[in-house]
Design a protein that fits this description.
Layout: E1 6-12, H1 19-27, E2 34-41, H2 47-55, E3 61-66, H3 71-81, E4 86-91, E5 95-96, H4 100-110, E6 115-124, E7 127-131, E8 137-141, H5 142-151, E9 162-165, H6 166-169, H7 182-193, E10 196-208, H8 221-238, H9 246-264, H10 270-285, H11 287-292, H12 298-309, H13 311-325
Parallel strand pairs: 1-2, 1-4, 2-3, 6-10
Antiparallel strand pairs: 4-9, 5-10, 6-7, 6-9, 8-10
Length: 328
Amino acid sequence: MEDYKVSVIVAAYNIQDYIVKCLESIANQTYKNLEAIVVDDGSSDNTGKLADEFAENDNRFTVIHKENGGVSSARNRGIDIASGDFIGFVDGDDTIEVDMYEILVNNAIKYDADISHCGYKVIENNKETLFYGTEKVIIQDRKKGLLDLFKGTLIEPSLCNKIFRGSIVDDIRLDESIKINEDLYFNVLLFDKSNKSVFEDKAKYYYMKRDNSATTSNINSVRRMTDPLKVYDMIVDLYKCDSEIFPYAKKMQIGRNINIYNLLTLEKNIEFKKLKKEIRHYIKLNKYEIKNSKIITKKMKLMVCGILYMRFIYDLIYKLYFNRKYKI
């Protein structure tokens, strides 16, 4: 039964070596009631031309050419013209299994879910890492969906292994001012709005990890640190009046601040030193809340103590740990 149309939005920027394979994986889906909206985000190579040529042979494909504005801008442009009952996303240098949308749509209808998502594989240097391949089917109400998203152990913050019912996307758009973790916040808004989501743990999305990915290669290193912090601030602010969700959002924010602090111990840039000081100040302001929290782990609490009261020793230990782990 293919009564439900899926709009697949493909953001593409300078990926001429990958775009055709990506589009072929969409065209070859066993679920045929698709429209694919390819948004060429101001590519300077042959990405746009190859997409145009592909669309000439499959009337389900539409190509939009626009000035470069980033992946969020490209996705928003696609959402604006999407006409499907469900909306999905594929990055133009990734691929999907032939039955991904068949499985996602069938689960959405079977379980009357607003969001349907699946597992995925990360492919880097010809090595595949599976997430997670248990084949379990898990039903999530609004709260469970959000908490699973915050934990990050079940729900991948990417948009690309999911379909969203068009009625919950509605007028929600990605924040184009954010270049890192913009998809996490968009996911939070949609999971917050959904009554039910369904996850089938079969790896159907193939995420190609490249160091020089076109979606991130032009983002400066400071923003790689500050944008995630901004996103977590936005999430905490969103749930400040929700007594059930707020503690978990706060835990996620604290964990992210600790992670970025750790990364900053490896940097020598003067701008990073300032940011590191700001994060330490944030942790200091929240130390009593962290100490009294029942959901923050003992490990996180110990790390907080190290950062606040034994900073130089903590930094040295982390550097030694990092160098040993990655054999630097």
